[in-house]
Amino acid sequence: MHVPDGFFTVPMSLAAGAVAASGVAYSLRRARDELDDRMAPLAGLVAAFVFAVQMLNFPVGAGTSGHLLGGALAAILVGPYTGVLCIAVVVTVQALFFADGGLTALGVNICLMGLVTVLTGYGIFRGVGKLAPRNRTGVVIASFVGAMVSVPMSALAFTGLYAIGGTSSIDPVTVAAAMGGVHVVIGLGEGAITALTVSTVLAVRPDLVYGARSLVRPSMLRTASGELVQARQAEGGHRAAPRLRPFLLGGVAAAVVLAGLVSFYASANPDGLERVAADYGFLSQAQDNPLGDSVFADYGVKGVGDERLSVGLAGAIGVGISLGVGAVVTWSLRRRARRRSGAATIAEPLTPES
């Protein structure tokens, strides 16, 4: 659902840009509370993984394809505010380096694929989680439902925005029905991918799933006196946490394989938005991205004749860029949070001894 340039009027594009900028700015402030020494590097990996999986368009019938939006997945793994930042990084990298999605429509795309999917997907995930079993199965079920619903909600949000500020007139009810219908099917794929990913991480490192933190209990040891204490306390606070590097390296490798190898076999059919736009007469309003002649435009490397190699290199490079930008953003926030915490500790007035 990458909206191209030309679909929206200038006022609507500016308004969506302002909303997107405000949402990202607010998320930058609130993400500091979500990020710790585990989540900061994981957020970069989530951005890279979402970029990779978004290259894997899957068929949904009638000559139409769909792909992961990723907002619900990112929010469940690293938290809603950090999730917004991850999707914003991915959408921006796609627009600037790969000419995927418009430049003037960047704010619209961040709103639809970042803000709407995170708000609805994570909100439904939390709501279903209260009704589902309080175990890993319940988290996976809630992940599926939240991700599945987030896609048609994003599609309906697009229809509403287009009815208000689109560059051509449409019948909102008819287009909403078409967008909602095809994106319900795409949502099933989104839910399956999200549930599978969350289930995999839960099986390997449940402590890295933000949405499942209530299920992770600290390890307890019984002391010589019979008292139960946390393992960290029992060992003087020096118990080594599970190593994060192998998990991160494995995640990066998986993203590179998906983007660099598997993406070549993705469906070439138009996605749900493009199909509906063609069927209802507003696809002609689309304009090419001004960076359409750039080195990596359309997920290929300019000058590389072999198509398989070209797509693979572009995918791997995109994973690297998304990983790097995501890591820089989140580590910067983490360092700033540490400095503020340290400054607050130093500034705390000393209490005189009695």
SSE topology:
Layout (H helix, E strand, L loop, with lengths): L9 H21 L8 H16 L3 E4 L2 E3 L4 H8 L1 H19 L7 H26 L4 H30 L6 H33 L15 E3 L5 E3 H4 L10 H16 L11 H8 L27 H41 L7
Antiparallel strand pairs: 1-2, 3-4
Keywords: Cell membrane, Membrane, Transmembrane, Transmembrane helix, Transport
Protein name: Energy-coupling factor ABC transporter permease
Membrane topology: Multi-pass membrane protein
Oligomerization state of this entry?
single chain
CATH architecture: Orthogonal Bundle
Helix content: 55-70%
Proportion of residues in β-strands: under 5%
**Tally of helical segments:** 11
- Note poorly predicted spans: 230-240
CATH topology: Arp2/3 complex 21 kDa subunit ARPC3
Derived structural class: mainly alpha
Q: If you compute it from the alpha carbons, what radius of gyration comes out, rounded to the nearest whole angstrom?
A: 22 Å
Terminal CA distance reads: 65 Å
Subcellular location: Cell membrane
Organism: Nonomuraea cypriaca
InterPro entries: CbiM/NikMN (IPR002751), PDGLE_dom (IPR025937)
Pfam families: CbiM, PDGLE
Describe the structure.
The protein is mainly alpha-helical and 354 residues long. It is 63% helix and 4% strand. The protein is built from eleven helices and four strands, in the order H-H-E-E-H-H-H-H-H-E-E-H-H-H-H. The protein has helices at 10-30, 39-54, 71-78, 80-98, 106-131, 136-165, 172-204, 231-234, 245-260, 272-279, 307-347; strands at 58-61, 64-66, 220-222, 228-230. A two-stranded antiparallel ribbon has the order 1-2. Strands 3-4 form a two-stranded antiparallel ribbon. A hairpin with a 5-residue loop joins strand 3 and strand 4 (228-230). Helix 3 crosses helix 6 (136-165), helix 3 packs parallel to helix 7 and helix 4 (80-98) runs antiparallel to helix 5. Residues 245-335 form the PDGLE domain. It is found in: Cell membrane. This is Energy-coupling factor ABC transporter permease. Its main location: membrane.
